[in-house]
Specification:
Layout lengths: L3 H9 L5 E4 L4 E4 L5 E4 L3 E5 L2 E5 L15 H9 L4 E6 L6 E5 L4 E4 L9 E7 L2 E7 L5 E3 L1
Antiparallel strand pairs: 1-2, 2-3, 3-9, 4-5, 4-8, 6-7, 7-8, 9-10, 10-11
């Protein structure tokens, strides 16, 4: 029997990712209407450590202009394909691991609010997998 986590992994394994900043959240698109909407903190980790986090978008950090988080996350993940995902069974934190060594972490940080939501097209319909507050996964 497929679990929500294994369903998501099967759907996105081998795919690239493109991130989009939206008004109230971020969308990580894996093509063909397959995406993860993040309402919680996220970060990209490389061999050098945390390369970019949600809070970095728009910060100056001594740069000549504010950091464009959308451009930077897409640069960091460019050319890489998903090789595995991990969902923490207790918290519903999500880790998407890429074959080029980067990983994308979503930190489910509330006992009451939804953290992230994945849209997975299956058999002509879209399955929604949601990380609920408190750490459970729900399938809609």
């Amino acid at each position: 029997m497929l679990t929500p986590a294994s369903t998501l992994e099967t759907a996105i394994r081998g795919r690239g990712c493109r991130a989009f900043r939206r008004e109230t959240d971020w969308n990580f698109n894996f093509g063909e209407d397959l995406g993860i909407a993040a309402f919680v903190p996220w970060r990209v980790v490389t061999a050098d450590g945390i390369a970019l986090g949600l809070e970095d978008d728009g910060q100056r950090f001594g740069l000549p202009r504010p950091l464009d988080g959308e451009a930077r996350v897409n640069e960091l993940l460019s050319g890489q394909r998903v090789c595995e995902i991990e969902v923490d069974a207790q918290t519903a934190d999500l880790r998407v691991v890429f074959d080029g060594g980067a990983r994308l972490d979503f930190f489910n940080n509330s006992s009451g609010y939804e953290g992230w939501q994945a849209s997975v097209p299956i058999h002509g319909r879209v399955l929604t997998i949601a990380a609920l507050g408190g750490g459970e996964l729900a399938v809609v």
